[in-house]
Amino acid sequence: MKLRIFSALFALIFLFSCNNDKEVLNTLNDYNLSMESKGYHFGDKLDLPAKVLENAESITISFGDKETDKLVVDPKFFTLGDNAVTFNIKKKGGEILTQDATINVFAKNPEAVLTYEIVKEYPHDPNNFVQGFELEGNTIYESEGQFGESRILKYTLGTTNALNEAPQASDVFSEGCTIVGDKIYQLTWRNKKGFIYDKNSFKLLSEFDYPNVMGEGWGLTYDGKNLIASDGTKNIYFLDVNDPSKMVRYISVAGNTEAYDQLNELEFHDGFIYSNVWQKPIILKIDPKTGEIVGKFDFSEIAKKHETDNDSVLNGITFKGENMLVTGKNWPTIYEVKIK
């Protein structure tokens, strides 16, 4: 009889413990979900629910191979944008509960709403699937994508006739490009390598592998010191221009209320990085030191004239003096806009 009573009591305690664990984890999950859209800023404390705290001897947050016991959004561990983390709750009895979560970290300051006016339009070859877009003098350098059609070419602004071009192999999908002195650097999408051309002759000078941290090649620009590349995530990578296989540093990008990934075509101008977001008619102005979005352009009125499918999207940024030139994949027009 005593054994039965003990077994029943043990089962009751075990059931209570299991139910309590579920309540703790459900409470934590509800809290995390409620904070995803609200987000945090660097320096904020994670105000976990009392139900979680009162059942925990200790709580840590792990980020892959890193871990912290400080419930604070510390830039040593967190980056701007979405952070995939795991909460590890050590109960007072020694058991450990774990739960995965996403913690969004936003920029502290609201980004400016940047406006513009169209001051001139130029013809653009609608067959060009624009991936990279650069202006030097009065010459446009473009990198075109698509398997079997990828190439780099140049033409005079105001015309559509190629002055020179270099086609890529059929298994290459070309991406962003940028000019560095007398050379052109060009990325590829999934080949994990880039090309370096002579700017005048388009002779292929060399190739380079991507740093391992870059999964793909998307956008490329140059700040006068480093190459700056995107790979379709929230991150922007600064690469050694003399050895692009080496990453110097990286930033993660976010605005005051929104995290962005799929950062694509890049342009560096007057101390800031400009980036479009794939399949969105916006261009972000990004602080290259912090990754914070300091301004945002809405090009919906222009984009809706040309977006006939998922491919024909805004995807070309360069500067003509202080005016911006924008175009898109298979667009028949390049727009020169004055920033107000």
TrEMBL record:
Annotated InterPro entries: QCT, Quino_amine_DH_bsu, WD40/YVTN_repeat-like_dom_sf
UniProt cross-references to Pfam families, sorted A to Z: Glu_cyclase_2
Domain of life: Bacteria
Stated name of the protein: Glutamine cyclotransferase
Organism: Kaistella daneshvariae
